[in-house]
Task: structure prediction
Amino acid sequence: MPAEDRRHITDVRTMRALASPVRYRILGHLMEHGPQTASECGAVVGATPSNCSYHLRELARYGLVERVEATAADGRERPWRPTATGHRFGPGDGEVADPASAYASRQLQHLGIDDEDALAHAAIDAHDALDPEWQAAESIATYGLRVTPDELAGLVAAVDALIRPYIALTREDAPPDARAVRAGVRAFRLPGER
Result:
């Protein structure tokens, strides 16, 4: 199994480069599906192959993606792959972020939520066309919890441990009928709650 490589990005320039919705979605697509060409990425993110090539080169400039060695004679269609299996943005635990880093990190979090929401809406629209077993397996659930900070941290860690063996970029034992699935966890204190 390929080693998991989760990166903590604190560089403001790298966070700004990723803050483009097209780049953010391209990187997410590569992390879900593995190596893809600019044409394949363009079909998913709704951009032309030349536009995707530009964005892929920008992601590569900041070390977020890299070219896969050519296997075909036509180097123009060489695929790209992510350089890590996951990312975390902003200051480290216990660090105080400078204002620019904090802002860039918040913008990426907002972008991630927007991207997740758009995919969830598209999944809801496509639900009826799925095979019955996939219809039954899908879930969009929300839970109202009452927990302490330690309980919430433990819950998030437990869910993360359950999900981690299925990460697309590191899973080699996936059955032939396995498909790409987006799973997200949002756990936050309700704003304004005392």
Summary: Residues 2 and 170 are 5 Å apart (CA to CA). Residues 99-126 form the longest helix (28 residues). The two ends are 46 Å apart (CA to CA). Helices lie at 12-18, 21-33, 38-45, 49-61, 99-126, 132-137, 149-163.
